[in-house]
Specification:
Length: 322
């Protein structure tokens, strides 16, 4: 008999690595058995600073996260990383050099690195990633970074559940500011142009600043000015400034009361996502045999898709009550 997930909770709360790893795997699978444990975990979470790091593949997110993790450790913090990126070194998809650098970090018990599988149902990834953040938060990690490759609504939803969002751009990945293409320019609290050691980095910085100015004008230029930083994960240049900008963003959230507003927005998002998942699962289980007659009626032009869908949901709901 495997240990029930509820028995892992106290061990997770004391920061026991093996228990954390185990509960993370179960949260990722999402079996019904794990939910009471996740409920207990949720009540202990809410202390960590959750930072989303996003940007296109190859911009240097994993390399930056490695640097940030080290800087956090040097500052006496416990740091956890949840990587949602198929090409991430954390999930083993990268060149050897990166993996060796990550392994150095992994020997430190004050650092925990976890990669999330990117398969699974729509919305399921967001659910399991945010449950993973709760687990690491409740286990006493001060800083929890979520690395996502900024493509697809699921990953944007994930990174928007962070308190501070860093969007990474880099030169040499095409002519455009990649963040624009990926639709993630607007979600940045901090912009960083990585690979500043490259001679073409200044052009990326200038382009990005121009795009932000144009965007701000279009939006009426309200709100906080989003900083644009330069960094090199290779040389370490600009890392201290990035750490300072991330800390200062949290400070500003706390001072202005916006942190509470963000937490509320995140809670609402998670509520809706969970409701969606429950509905979808129930729908998948119960719709069998209920569609045939409705489809026939649609074919005969007796009923439109919208009305038919409402009828189907009603049937499923009635069956559940009965
Ligand atoms: N020149 C240069 N290369 C970098 C820098 N940061 C990362 N790289 C390289 O860019 C490639 C992609 O880095 P990675 O961190 O895996 O990017 P990710 O896909 O965004 O996570 C790797 O070959 C890195 O060694 C940097 O600051 N300067
Ligand atoms: Mg990566």
């Amino acid at each position: 008999m495997p240990v029930p997930s509820s028995d892992l909770v106290d061990r997770v709360l004391t920061g026991e690595t093996a228990a954390i790893a185990r509960l993370l795997s179960r949260a990722e699978r999402g079996d019904a058995e794990v939910y009471p444990a996740l409920g207990a975990i949720f009540r202990h979470a809410g202390r960590a600073h959750v930072v989303g790091i996003t940007g296109v593949s190859g911009s240097g997110k994993s390399s930056l996260v490695t640097r940030l993790a080290r800087a956090g450790r040097d500052g006496g913090r416990k740091v956890a990383v949840v990587a949602v990126d198929p090409s991430s070194p954390f999930s083993g998809g990268s060149i050897l050099g990166d993996r060796i650098r990550m392994n150095e970090l992994a020997a430190d018990p004050g650092i925990f690195i976890r990669s999330m599988a990117t398969h699974g149902s729509l919305g399921g990834l967001a659910r399991s990633t945010l449950d993973a953040v709760d687990i690491l938060d409740s286990a006493g990690f001060d800083l929890v970074m979520i690395e996502t490759v900024g493509v697809g609504q699921d990953e944007i939803d994930i990174v928007q559940a962070a308190h501070s969002v860093v969007v990474v751009s880099a030169p040499g990945l095409g002519d455009d500011i990649q963040a624009i293409k990926a639709g993630i320019l607007e979600i940045a609290d901090i912009h960083v142009v990585n690979k500043s050691d490259r001679s073409d980095a200044h052009k990326t910085i200038a382009d990005l600043k121009a795009m932000i100015t144009m965007g701000a004008q279009a939006a009426g230029a309200t709100g906080r000015k989003v900083p644009v930083l330069a960094s090199s994960a290779i040389s370490g240049e600009g890392i201290d400034e990035l750490v300072a900008a991330i800390d200062s963003h949290l400070g500003a959230l706390q001072r202005t009361g916006e942190l509470a507003a963000r937490r509320r927005r995140i809670a609402e998002q998670r509520l809706l996502k969970s409701a969606e998942q429950i509905l979808r699962a129930s729908f998948d289980r119960r719709r069998d045999g209920r569609t045939t007659e409705l489809v026939e009626r649609m074919m005969r032009g007796e009923i439109d898709p919208h009305t038919a869908a409402r009828k189907l949901l009603k049937l499923i709901d009635q069956e559940k009550q009965g």
